[in-house]
Specification:
It is a single chain. By secondary structure, the chain is mainly alpha-helical. It folds into three domains: about 160 residues, no CATH class; about 120 residues; about 180 residues, no CATH class. It is built from 23 helices and six strands. The strands form two sheets. The protein has a four-stranded mixed β-sheet with strand order 5-2-1-6, with helices on both faces. The radius of gyration is 27 Å and the shape is globular. The two termini are about 35 Å apart. The relative contact order is 0.06.
Length: about 500
């Protein structure tokens, strides 16, 4: 038996297929490649949460038609007239729009649609642009469903919002919500009870509940909806049902402090499991500080990764352009998993080296791959070696002291997680070929592009990890697993 949860969205899709698509194919056949249609944005039906109460206003058959500004000037008025001629009633349901809901359906440019939803005509790019937009608004761009998208533009826009949010923005928002969880639930609640401030008590409980639910969305890399759907939306998230049950208990329980403690314990545990913090701390504000430190580091790491990719894009080879040069998604995950594992001083040193090289007109990525060719393609290396860095004896001695330590860490990782290791590079230089570059050779090439002072920092970092019994290869692969959506290395290993 079909529930009424997605009735509104299905109604609109069927309406489009029965009236919208035939109209567009008949009257705008030459423009189908620049027109996209669907139902996305405001309204409970776009979330799939509509019920019988949703039908009292701004509900009924309809859909959006999106075009670029230049095409709107050409066919916008004609599209509007054609849309307005479509039946206003479908399957016994007639759409009535309130004044506030005007523009939810109909013909609109991408720029106007973005401005209506997120307050700007273009999608965010830089971390500060993402951070300025509430998650509830960003979520409105990826809900609902696309009905027709020949050019793929609507899909690309949605993928950008869903998958390209800077990690540093997510971390910064997570830290902010954790601060509120701690302040309201672990501090202000107990103060209000002690003062018998009943109204304040209710306010801080509400604040605690809202921020806890928003925290969970951020932990799951999901955009939290507006307040009225926060609790309902938890069902759709991994582990969200457990938090939702605790929220329901908190709402009616006489043991408020116990339920607050349970929720905080769940959040603390999840922060560690998902790799946002290295250890649990009783007061969530302390963990919020750790997450914010991670956010600051992630901003530097993201900048380096973007710069690397720009240089990678310009790196040529005799065999022509490599497929990976057009794969930002994989590239960014691989490189960020490494940089997110570095301490801030080392990260800043690497960033400084990159910027200095760029100022000197050098392409560090080209140099790195050229250095690797000494092992993978000796004949090719002989042709370009005069253009590559030539480190002095002291640098080489330190580099060659570092490499065996890190290679040994990768060997240990491969024994513990053989499937993940098999999906990565071969480990040893002796196994290099013109087609395959080993972990050891890649590491040698990368370290050679560092300045001596950065190499010293790297060596100290690696030695410190070894002294503590920690494995850098495992740390990096754990970060990589998290970026691919796995809570643990074990889950990533078992998925292969």
């Amino acid at each position: 038996m079909e529930t009424t949860v997605k009735t509104g969205l299905k109604l609109c899709e069927d309406y489009f297929e029965e009236y919208g698509r035939p109209m567009l194919e008949r009257d705008f056949s030459e423009y189908l490649g620049v027109i996209s249609c669907g139902l996305v944005g405001e309204g409970s039906e776009c979330l799939g949460y509509d019920d019988s109460l949703s039908k009292d206003h701004d509900f009924g058959p309809g859909f959006c038609i999106w075009v670029d500004d230049d095409k709107y000037e050409e066919i916008g008025d004609k599209l509007k007239r054609a849309y307005e001629k479509l039946p206003d009633e479908f399957r016994g349901i007639k759409r009535y729009n309130t004044e506030n809901a005007r523009g939810r359906v109909g013909v609109i440019t991408y720029g106007e649609f973005f401005e209506r939803i997120i307050g700007r005509r273009t999608l965010p790019v830089k971390p500060y642009e993402w951070n300025a937009i509430p998650d509830a608004k960003l979520g409105l761009l990826i809900n609902g469903k696309i009905f027709m998208d020949v050019s793929g533009k609507a899909d690309r826009c949605r993928k950008k919002i869903k998958y390209e949010r800077p990690f540093s923005d997510r971390l910064a928002k997570l830290a902010s919500q954790l601060e509120v969880v701690a302040q309201s639930g672990q501090y202000n609640y107990y103060r209000s009870v002690a003062r018998n401030a009943i109204v304040t008590e209710k306010l801080v409980i509400a604040s605690f509940m809202e921020s806890s639910m928003r925290t969970w969305h951020l932990l799951c890399d999901s955009y939290a909806p507006y307040d009225k759907w926060l609790c309902r939306s938890l069902i759709d998230l991994p582990g969200g049902s457990e938090l939702r049950n605790l929220m329901m208990e908190l709402a009616v329980s006489e043991h408020v402090g116990d339920r607050i403690a349970d929720i905080c314990a769940l959040i603390r545990k999840t922060l560690v499991v998902k790799g946002f913090c290295s250890e649990e701390k009783e007061y969530l504000a302390d963990m919020a500080a750790d997450v914010m430190d991670y956010a600051k580091k992630a901003m530097v790491a993201d900048d380096i990764t973007e710069l690397e990719f720009a240089l990678f894009d310009k790196t040529g080879s005799e065999g022509g352009r490599a497929v990976c040069q057009d794969d930002w998604g994989t590239f960014s995950k691989m490189r960020r998993s490494q940089y997110y594992s570095f301490p801030m001083d080392l990260l800043c040193a690497v960033a400084s080296d990159f910027k200095k090289a760029c100022e000197e007109g050098r392409n560090v990525i080209t140099e790195k791959y050229g250095i690797m060719m000494q092992s993978t393609d000796p004949a090719g290396y002989e042709k370009i070696k005069d253009k590559l860095p030539c480190p002095d004896e002291e640098f080489v001695k330190l580099r060659e002291a570092i490499i065996p330590i890190q290679v040994g860490m990768m060997e240990e990782f491969a024994k513990e997680y053989p499937k993940m290791a098999q999906n990565a590079r071969v480990i040893h230089t002796k196994d290099d070929s013109i087609l395959f570059t080993s972990y050891e050779t890649y590491l040698r090439g990368e370290l050679t592009t560092y300045s001596f002072s950065t190499l010293v920092l790297y060596g100290r970092f690696l030695a410190g990890l070894a002294k503590e019994g920690k494995n850098l290869a495992k740390i990096i692969m754990t970060k990589s697993a998290h970026l691919y959506g796995y809570d643990t290395l074990e889950k990533a290993e078992n998925s292969i």
